[in-house]
Structures are given as structure tokens and as C-alpha cells.
Amino acid sequence: MNSNRNLRNPASLAPLAPLKAWLYLLATLVCLSTFPPVQAATNVVLWDTLAPLADTIPTEASSSWKAVPSDLLVLETDPPKASSDPGYYGREYAFQGDAVVENRHLAAVFSSAQGKVVIYAKDSASLPASVTPATGFGKKITEFTPPQTATQPVRIRHFEIVRHAADTVALKVSFSSDGADAAAVFVFDQSGIVEIQPAENLKTVRLVSPIEYGIVPGFIGDDLIFAPAEYPEAKTLCVPAQNLFLGLLKGEDSQLVMTWPKGNQQMRLRLGAAPQGARLIESLEFDPDGQSLYLATTVAPGLWHREPLTSAYLEKDVAVQWRRPFAARWTTQLYEGDVKTTFAFRAAKGDIWRGVPGSYRYPVWFDGETASYHLSKKVPPKGESLIYFLEGNDTPLTVSTPVEILKQTLGRPMADSILDLAGRKLRTHHRRGGAGVRRACTCGCTEAIQAVFEAGEEVAKKEVIAGDVDDMLYFVQRHIERIDEYQRFAGGLIQFLRAQPPSAPELKPYLDDLEQLAGRIQQEYSVQKDNMKSLAHAHDLQARTLALANKKDPKNLSAYMDLLKAWREMGGAQDYVVAQCHTLTRKLSQAAGYGCVDQPKAVAITDEVRKRCRQTLRNPDGYEIWADY
To answer: Residue 330 sits in which domain range?
Structure first.
């Protein structure tokens, strides 16, 4: 498509005499043949609507609009002459109407009368080979505007083209309300990402979207999920801003992804006034701290799903009607006991063992494309299951996951520090890697040694027993070290909470709740201390086990079985405590995140508490949680 649409519209030449029209066309064609084509590619198109938009925001481009060329000199009477004369360089473009920017993924309509920017997303099924005026804008995702004053609405008073070249359109937009001006630069390229750079006096931005659920991803630990129905009396939720926010939009077919670099940004979710069951997050307010924020959208049928859980799901396999629209790392949160726990959907059903609840059927998996559940007393059908994705897993290249958007917008070094791939790897309790006992735990190692004694080969395989005992001792050492980490974390956090100044007495219940949870980590250790024994006790068991292999004796097996029991009692207590400490730390992180929603003064404390929780939860043991959370 040639972006200079006046060349395609004969009506635009009607006022010209035939000869004058031919001369105009000839001059323009000479210019286009001499210099790079104007908008030869249609990856990004900037429209001038030629007249201010009416109250109704358009949902597709109009044939009456004009495509603004990237080389403004073609608009001169003699383009070749203008291009050869530096006196013409630096020409500014004056919009006659409003601005619209469009690419294959989205469209942004700037309404000067309404003082807002409306962003639409095109679903992947309707992406055209090239952008044309007839192409619809797609689904409305969000509206951007500075906060409105009490007396005057916001207006857009000026557009300035900062850049229109190299598949990039950067448009500076000046907003005005009640004499106060603010500005932002909107940057578009051929991707589906919009960058918003705050300029003069823009301290807060407002995004209006029909958000059913707001998600603050955790990556280490569990995501925070904010559902308006859970806050029937609240009008505003203060949420801890952590560089990535996911808004699941009404209809289960679209989402808004927002990212921002590290800084002192603040986020507030404004809740609508509809009845409790139908309430939405109608807008979010964001203080950008002078830094850019990035918006992206994804649209597809069944992009996310809400599944109400009832007693009908208890102790049986249930296939639900929702089918995943594409492959990804689909996740949900369910209650494991009284703690919200993130479960990634697995490829097939199976069982799992966890340090606190014990064995149970893993609750979610895919049977083909269909999601299936098996809930139990250990993971009960409670509330609802929200299915969504953050990361890819054989995801089509046409779908940008929130994590990929994070990498594209913030760059890999910063994104890597947020995603913390190294911290999501399980620590090993295998002394010899894959060369030793596969089940490198007190149960697994004692079982392997038991087989040697039962075969009467303890003397001949003394070195094998010694290696297995060393593996088991290494496992115990790692457990003790991990439990000690949790104890130091809990003690340090309690000191931090108690050191908070008493300037905000309304925060005391919030601080007390967090301290109580941290105290439970210490209590679990105290209660199980005698059962966990000590490293010295483990060394004593080691010596006694090895001594049995020094000579053949018919009583060796019986004596070893007594030692096996002692090994397992010690290891089992440690398994329980390390898993309990992990669960309580995750619960503490959640309590900090959810507990600050109505306490703006608590947000800074929340950030520090969650930071400490995150650091402690890094590299868990397999007895704490499954790999990659």
C-alpha cells in the first residue's frame, strides 16, 4: 500500500486543473523515484484524521484520513527542490485533525476532545498482510489519560512528531486540564508493544480497562491475584509494583500486559461500583517515577479461564469445558491446605509427594487440549480456579507471552534479574550427582543399604554401604543448612518488623500478622527440634551403620533395621520442618502482598518483606516444592 493516500484518491485532485494535476503527479513521482519511497513499507502508519474526532471513537480507519508521510518534504510544491535545499530541512508537521497510529497488531486513536488515547488489539486471526484503511482496529483494550481535575476535563492541545522513520512512530502528546499541562511520548514500532515515556509534569497515568483479575507475577513464590469480588467494600487497592502486571480482561479472550523498569513506581487499582459478583477493576493508576512504561495486548478465544470449584470436583477426575487455545505454561492457584499454591498444568495425570500434606494426586493436567482436575481433601475444591499463562512452552511464534514482552521491553539483563532463572533451580541434595543413590534421602539410601544386608553381602560391599551412608549424611547436612536459613530469615524479619517506627499506628495489625507468621517458622523448628536430632547424631548413626559391615553376623540385618528406623525418624522430621518453613514463607509473602491493599503506608514495608521472602525461597529443595515452582 502507498501511504500517501491522496495519490490513490482522484477526488483529492478535483480542485486542480488537469494540467496542474499532471504536473503535481509528475513532480511527486520524480521525487519518489529519486529518494526512498514514502512509507513503502506499511509496518507502522500514522494517520491525520484531517478534522477533530467526534465524541464516538472510531474502530477503523476512514477513507477521509490522510497518511502522514515519513518524508515531509514530499508535501512541498516542488519535492525534489525541497530535498536538495537544507533550508527546507526540519519541517514540522501540523495536524489538521487528530492522530491515529496503526500497525499489524494494534491501533491507537488520539482524541483531542476527550483527552485520551484508545488502544485496540487485533487478534492473530485477522492480521492483514498489510495495513489498509479498510482494516478494523480490533478489540478495545485500554484508554490512557492523565488524571482529570475536579473542574475541567482533560484535552489534548498539541501533537508533535518526534520520529517517523525506520518502522518507528514516536508522537509527543501534550495534555491540558484546568490550565495544567502534562505531556507523554508514545512510541510505536512494528511489534504489538507501546512505550509511554512521561514528559513534562506527567506524574500519574490512568489506564481504563474492564479488568476482571489483576495479577502481580512472582516467579519465585506465588503470584498475587486480585479479584474485585474479594474486596466488596474497597474502592482502591494498593498493590506492590514489581515490574510486570497482567490484567485479564472481561470476556476471557484478551489480556493487558504492562511492564516497567525498576524504580519507585506505585500502582493503584480502582474498583467499579457494580454489585459484588460483577465488580471489575475499572482502571489502574500508575506513578511512573519518571520512567517509561510499556503496554502490550494478546487477544485469542479462551485466552484465560475462570473455573468455579464445587464439591462435585472432590476425589474424582473432572474434565472441564475449557480447552487451551495454544501451548504454553498454563498455571492455576489452588489451596494446598490453607495456603494458595501455584500448580502448572502437567502433560498427564499422576501422583506427587509433599513434605507436609504427604502423597496425593497432582490436581491439574491436560488430556489433549482439555484441562482436567482431581481435587482432594489435601487440595480441596475451594473458591475458583483461574487459568492463565505467563511463560511459553512450545508456544506458537505468533503469540508473545508476558515473559517475552518483559524481555523485549526491559532487555534481557533486567528481565533476567526479575525472572531469576538461577533462583528457580532446585538445590541438589545428591552428593554424587547422578552416580549415587537415585533417591538421595534417608528413605532411599536406607532402602538401598537394606537390600545389601538382606542379601548378606554387607562385608563384600562395605565400600558400597560407605558411599550410600555418605550420600545420606550429605542429604541430612543439606536439610540442616536449609532449615538454618529459614531460622535466620524469620529472626531477621521479626527484628525488621519490630523496628518499624510507631508513626503509623494503623499499621500495627498488619505488622503483627506478619510477625506472627514469621514466629510460626521458629515454632516449627522448636517443636520438632528433638525429633530432627543433630548432625552429631547423624555421624553416630553413620559410625554404627559402617561398623555392621566389618564382619559377618546373622544379627546384622536386625541391628541395621533398628538403625534404619533411627535414620528415617530423623530424616522424616527434617523433611517436615523444611517443607513447613517453605510453606509458611510463601504464606508470609502472600500475606504481605494482600495485606497492604488498604494501607498505602504499608507498601514500602510490603516490598521489603516480599524481597526477603523471595531471597529465602530461592533454590528450594525438592522436599519444599517441585522444580521451577
So the answer is: 305-398
